[in-house]
Design goal:
Strand order of the largest sheet: 2-5-8-1-9
Structural class: alpha/beta
Shape: globular
Strand content: 5-15%
Oligomer: single chain
Distance between the termini: 29 Å
CATH superfamily of the largest domain: P-loop containing nucleotide triphosphate hydrolases
CATH class of the largest domain: Alpha Beta
Number of domains: 2
CATH architecture of the largest domain: 3-Layer(aba) Sandwich
Number of strands: 9
Order of helices and strands: HHHHEHEHEHEHEHHEEEHEHHHHHH
CATH topology of the largest domain: Rossmann fold
Largest sheet: 5 strands, parallel
């Protein structure tokens, strides 16, 4: 029997096999996609903020950071809700969020502004050969928005109300990146890229942004940077997993019974324990995706509870390494 999660099906009742393209109906196949059309949108950070339930320890850390107007550095494994904290605060206080995603080649300048030097030099050259009637070139301004775009830090400083600034996955950046932000984190200002323009700073009558910084712990951050932050580690323990499961229970209720969800959590923890000495085990994000697929397929509690670990249904949602899958045998 086909489940609603079987988006690709053979043309016979004998299971999957060679597609008989002469009988294939693309419109019917396309109609099956509607069953999952909105699933991804439910996991978006803006949507997930409504389901986020911070622990008491996390609330204490948030309150301390806001009271001191100090950056809050959140550490922990991927999928523990670090990024979600910023979206939760934005929703809770009804204030703007400026989200900067750090990359392996990010620099502190990228957080402040982006200057398109190639476009500027091209236009400056064209201007030099296309002169005015009085034979003087029309050189474009470097501060023209076509070339100079404020970064998330600049946007947060010039925002007229309270706001949240998220610097996400700072441990991905080169080592100098955190140290290059020390002035910004202490005085909430930085020099304009083209003096004598005034420095970019938070208006004195406005409080500094609520700064949330996340790290997956891929490397240690510099001590001068850490001293400016309030640091809180989010542990993916049983209590956090239970809160996540409760918050998202209605997403799986139709296709996955409460007993099946509990069985899935037990097996999920088995996998984490089995893999904890080998590699980074699956996190909360993988758990939610796995439960989504199990619910879509109407998987029974019996099958989840009794299947060997290596034969768990939709195991590919949890295991990303072939050797890890072999280790479950």
């Amino acid at each position: 029997m086909n489940s609603k999660a079987d988006f690709i099906r053979s043309n016979s009742d004998g299971g999957f096999g060679k597609i008989d393209w002469s009988r294939h109906d693309p419109k019917a196949a396309q109609a099956r996609l509607a069953a999952s059309a909105k699933v991804a949108s439910h996991r978006r950070l803006q949507t997930g903020a409504a389901r986020f339930v911070p622990s008491e320890h996390l609330i204490n850390a948030i309150n301390a950071a806001i009271a001191a107007r100090a950056p809050l550095l959140l550490t922990g494994d991927p999928g523990t809700g670090k990024t979600q904290v910023a979206y939760f605060l934005s929703r809770y206080f009804g204030i703007e969020l400026f989200h900067y995603q750090v990359h392996s080649d990010s620099s502190a300048r990228d957080l402040r502004y982006d200057f398109d030097a190639v476009a500027y030099l091209r236009d400056a050259y064209l201007a030099s050969v296309q002169k005015r009637a009085d034979d003087t070139p029309v050189i474009p301004l470097r501060t023209d928005p076509r070339y100079l775009q404020p970064g998330k830090l600049w946007q947060a400083y010039e925002h007229k109300n309270e706001c949240v600034l998220l610097i996400d996955e700072i441990d991905k950046a080169p080592r100098d990146f955190p140290n290059d932000l020390l002035l910004e984190l202490a005085d909430y200002r930085f020099d304009h890229p083209f003096p004598p323009a005034e420095p970019i700073a938070r208006l004195e009558h406005l409080p500094p942004p609520i700064v949330i910084i996340t790290s997956n712990g891929e490397r240690r951050l510099p001590d001068p940077f850490l001293r400016r932050c309030i640091v809180h580690h989010i542990e993916l323990d049983d209590q956090l997993l239970e809160r996540i499961l409760d918050a998202w229970a209605d997403e799986f209720a139709e296709g996955l019974s409460a007993d099946a969800r509990r069985a899935a959590l037990v097996r999920f923890n088995e996998i984490r324990r089995r893999l904890e000495t080998r590699s980074r085990p699956p996190g909360a994000a993988e758990l939610l995706i796995w439960l989504t697929v199990l619910a879509a397929r109407g998987t029974s509690e019996k099958r989840i509870a009794e299947a060997p670990l290596q034969a768990l249904p939709s195991l590919e949602c949890l295991i990303k390494d072939h050797e890890d899958q072999q280790h479950l045998r």
